[in-house]
Design a protein that fits this description.
mitochondrion outer membrane; Putative mitochondrial import receptor subunit tom40; mainly beta; 67% strand; receptor
């Protein structure tokens, strides 16, 4: 059968937001470039069949110190970092 969904995206100079809604659930994201050094993003997924999830991530660039930090955490408390 046919699966219907609706998707949208809005982009501005420093941020982007997306939303997809369908029969199985919804998925939303938001990305923001705060400045040349810091970027952050969030993601949320609601599913009719599975557990809802969300995640937060960041990237911090310190070029003068030759350092790049990336990290994330999700709603299951899974943490990632580099």
């Amino acid at each position: 059968g046919t699966v219907m969904s609706l998707a949208g995206r809005y982009t501005a100079p420093n941020w982007t937001a997306t939303l997809t809604v369908g029969q199985a659930g919804a998925h939303a994201t938001y990305y923001h470039k705060a400045n040349d050094q810091l970027q952050v993003g969030v993601e949320f997924e609601a599913s009719a069949r599975m557990q809802d999830t969300s995640a937060f991530g960041y990237q911090l660039d310190l070029p003068k110190a030759n350092l790049l930090f990336k990290g994330s955490v999700d709603s299951n408390w899974v943490v990632g970092a580099t």
